[in-house]
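Aggregate trends can hide what the representation actually does to any particular protein. The sequence in question and its structure tokens are set out directly beneath this paragraph.
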Amino acid sequence: MFMHPCRHRSPRRPLVRGTKHFGRLSLIISLCLLGGMTERILGDQKPSARFHHVRLNTTNPKDSMQFYQRHFGAVPVRFNGVADGLFVERSFLLFNKVDSPPATELTSGIWHIGWGGVDILNEYQWLKRHGVNFNTTPQPLPGIDNYYMYIKGPAGELIEINTMGHHRFAHVHFFCDDVNETCQWYAKHLGLKPRREKVPRPKAAPDTLLGIWMNFMTCDNIQMIYFGKPDSEKPIPWWPDPPLKQFEPTKGRAIDHIAFSYPEIESVHARMKADGVEVLSEPKVQEELKLKSFYVQGPDKVLIEIVEAKPIPEGLWE
């Protein structure tokens, strides 16, 4: 759940009354992403891996593509000249056609994907008029005229929209068994840099500032947000579902996997195997996408694809 303040001033009268806890949680994350953390922040070294795509499972790729084009301005492309996909500023949405609806329960290591918004209250009304399925109506952030909301995509994938002053694809939000171990995995094997090198596990309840176990990374223009999984037996205001005790693999779910790219992947494959990463396949070309890649099992049963591609824009318009 990525909450980021912007300068745009929305109408002051909210459409719905947000809970105090939801607002507090959102404000906390906003401050963290703006650099409000007092803990040691790591350097700005660029990651060696680049964010490449999110792969979604759907029974109707055409409907899914039209949904993201209409509501999020995604640009249709012929990916590598052979497959339909969507371009979202600096990465892609790609679609697997499946025979039956994919699992959508929030029980995997990927909680949701997220876009920015400008005027959330009016955007909510527009989306509502166009038949979008809402998981959460707009919730206000206390003290600032910013809002967030959750919607369901065509295949049941959870999508967050929050006030950021733009309408771009902005984040992927993860759940973790151990935030530090997960972030260290991404740092070691993908070269990404967490905002904080290590985050002590809080002792307080997860509905307060002290109780949120979280860290952040940036890969290109995508914020990657890591929360400790909501496994408390006590009610958590921002988590209405049952306690999340055990992760299901992302593979086969509505959000199937995420992908990172390198200009050359044979050496990356060899390095990851030598480092003990659970490598699931050898590098090979997927003919349906003309894309050379291999898969690894990431932390918290998140499926990760490593693809061979030049970074955007060179890799798109060369």
User: Anything to note?
Assistant: The CA atoms of residues 200 and 213 lie 8 Å apart. Confidence is low (pLDDT under 50) at residues 1-24, 31-47.
